[in-house]
Amino acid sequence: MLKAILGAIAVISAGFSTVYVNDFRKNRDSANKGIFKKSLIIGFITDFLDAIGVGSFATTTAILKFDKKVNVPDKLLPGTLNVAHALPMVAQALMSLTVIEIDIFTLVCMIVAAVTGSWIGAGIISKLPEKKVQLTMGIALLGTAGLLIAKQLGVMPAGGDAMALEGTKLIIGVVGNFVLGALMTAGIGLYAPCMAMVALLGMNPKAAFPIMMGSCAFVGPIACTKFVKEGAYVREVSMGITIGGIVGSILALKFVTNMPVYWLNWLVVAVVLYTAVTMFKSAVKKDDENKLENQAS
């Protein structure tokens, strides 16, 4: 069954890659070569950090907001993040899923739930007006920061020894992963909340890794096909991050497995909180601009 899951990931990823590359070739802007090269570096750094446990969505959002030369409109941030990191997450999953044994039925149920949630979420997020995207991402970033702080302070649930979910706990897990899959399309990473949920359900924290990586490996390509087809992402930025991210993920998983990240996580918390405030300020500014336009008309 695990081989079937890995095979399905490979097939779905190949299909997404075809759509992604064709869209990039047909619509790329040769004037954005500088942005593409810079995005390669961003992808390498953020997915290297992702592979060692820091996360990629929040860090990428922060870098893109700080660097004004890499112009990604807030409305296109969720699509850009998801498309950019889809294939690096697949690379991480293919390298990691065979390491930890977990009940296959539980794993399949959780993956299907996340994929279903992401497919619905991508359709909604790609059509939201910019202000709502800014508010959604601001809230998502605050949630991410809260989970990171809880992890740093050691107040995250410790979990149990189970490697499977049954009955009511399985239903809760499936519903929870459905919600997390939908939230992932809004720009909130699935890793930290999924790890917290799995621990609260009494599972061994190690069980979170195949669930997280398996979910993201399916969610990314499937949800991102919608973003690509609707043009709801910045092509040069996403492609650069994708290529750099695949390299960063592979190098991290092959050569860096126990890197201490305690102080790095606190730095990420500070950056994420700053970025969340920036998102809320942008939403307020957008609201003021809309009021002025209405008064002028």
From TrEMBL:
Membrane-related topology note: Multi-pass membrane protein
InterPro entries assigned: TM_pro_TauE-like
Transmembrane segment boundaries: 41-64, 104-126, 133-150, 170-203, 237-256, 262-280
UniProtKB keywords: Cell membrane, Membrane, Transmembrane, Transmembrane helix
Pfam families for the chain: TauE
Localization, UniProt: Cell membrane; Membrane
Family according to the record: Belongs to the 4-toluene sulfonate uptake permease (TSUP) (TC 2.A.102) family.
Protein name, UniProt field: Probable membrane transporter protein
Protein's organism: Terrisporobacter mayombei
Upper lineage: Bacteria, Bacillati, Bacillota, Clostridia, Peptostreptococcales
